[in-house]
Amino acid sequence: MLAFSLVPLLPGERFSFVEKPAPLAATFVLLITVSTLWTLGLVVLVNQKLADALKTSKLFLESTLDGLSANIALVEESGGILLVNKAWRDFARANGIDPVRVSEGVNYLRVCGTETEYCAGDAFVFSEGVKSVLNGSKELFVMEYPCHSPSRQRWFMGRVTPFPGDGPKRVVVAHEEITERKLMEIALEKTNKKLEAITNEDGLTKIANRRHFDAVLENECARHARSGAVLSVLLLDIDYFKNFNDTYGHVQGDDCLRSVAQAMARCLKRPTDLAARYGGEEFACLLPETNLLGAVGVAENIRGTIQKLAIEHNKSQVAPVVTVSIGVVSLRCESQTKPDDILRQADALLYQAKEEGRNRVSFRGVPEDAYLGPGDSPVGAVKILWNNASSSGNARLDRQHGQLVDLANALLAGILSGDASFDLRESVVRLLRHVQTHFEDEEHIMREMGYPQAEEHAAEHGRLLQEGWALVRDDDVAGISAVGVLQHIVHGLVMQHMFSEDVKYYSWSRVVT
């Protein structure tokens, strides 16, 4: 072995035991070529396997989706539909739509945007929800909506969720019919409303019961404390009702209670007003955002309407028919005002009406109502009281103010009397014409005196007159509102403006002169 190893070192002829190797470069090229071919073959093999796996996965996904009852579509970022399931196509076909129009290759957002039927609004909202999930502003969008067919009512729940993965943004849109649940909800809601009505309704008279009245009063008290508006409450009692029951029996007594309750309820014109049976023969009314004059007007209407029912009551010491006594309180609620305090005030006024002879209205209002007092008629009327402290010192203006008070009191007496022959429109027009002349004279005097707020005061005059004439113009379409006249003309224009705003420049004139 050692000798074989030394042979190449001896001089002379060379010996060759093996072939001469190929050059190194050729060998390298050969290796690279073989490696590349092997790699390409491996890639082709892997890609084939991946394609087969992807095809298998897609088939599995499609078969899974086709097994679901929900209508499902895969939507790409641009809105194009990439994939829909069998339920999606079947739903389109069942509704007379070619499935091709709402399947792969169609822009789902564009389809929603071109919806022209009655559900176009819902389609727009849902398309915006899809966009919000696509752009990442929402992680989930859920919406319930009606989609009724000509033959039956249907409701659906649409749900949009992101499609998982690191590729392009896509979302899964699913629509599932929830008609059965929705119909159950509607039926349950109707049942609950019926139960609530039964719970809140007095069984005998079919108006609200005390429980409901107390709950609404508490809410209105809190709301009026926030708004600063005037809240009015009426408590009324049937005069000598025990004598009625003893004379005519409880069956007729119940009939009387029903008649009184329904007559009272008919006198309340606004949906926010509430009539309730408060207990026994006692009833209550809640009048939100109603000042004292408006409340007294309603109370007088109730009192007169019940008397006109002419329910015989031979044992009454007031009249031969059934009558009621009413206590009215109007106030501005504060954060510490309690409903019980309001009811105590109304109850005290009801007691006062009974003490003063029954079949009348007794009332108390907020500070700006201090110029109101009992009327001259024997039953519950009200009138504006003139106070010399309100004099301006100008003989002409004071005379006009006195005439204005007389006209307002005539208007009040006519409204509260319930006299069918009283011409309300004519009386309002007569008062407004007097007011217009008075305002013109007053503005002239204020400007001559150099009153700094003369123009603001004149602008207020214009607003008050505009509101007043608007009530008369409304009479061309419907009967003029007596309560509107009481609140906007008698209370707002006469009492508040004359007794609150005018005195401001009276005080200023006394200082400068």
Task: Report on this structure.
The protein has 513 residues and is of the alpha+beta class. It has 4 domains: 29-58; 67-182, PAS domain (Beta-Lactamase, 2-Layer Sandwich); 201-384, 2-Layer Sandwich (Alpha-Beta Plaits), CATH 3.30.70.270; 388-512, Four Helix Bundle (Hemerythrin (Met), subunit A) (Up-down Bundle). Helices cover 54% and strands 14% of the residues. The protein contains 15 helices and 12 strands. It has helices spanning 2-6, 24-66, 86-94, 108-113, 120-134, 179-200, 210-227, 241-248, 250-266, 292-308, 339-355, 395-417, 424-449, 454-474, 482-512; strands spanning 71-76, 81-84, 141-146, 155-162, 170-177, 230-238, 274-279, 282-287, 324-332, 361-364, 372-374, 382-384. The strands form 3 sheets. Strands 2-1-5-4-3 form a 5-stranded antiparallel β-sheet, sandwiched between helices. A 5-stranded mixed β-sheet has the order 7-8-6-9-10, sandwiched between helices. Helix 11 (339-355) links the parallel strand 9 (324-332) and strand 10. Helix 14 runs antiparallel to helix 15. The radius of gyration is 44 Å and the shape is elongated. The N and C termini lie far apart (147 Å).
Question: What would you say about this model in short?
Answer:
The chain has 513 residues and is α+β, with helices and mostly antiparallel strands. 54% of the residues lie in helices and 14% in strands.
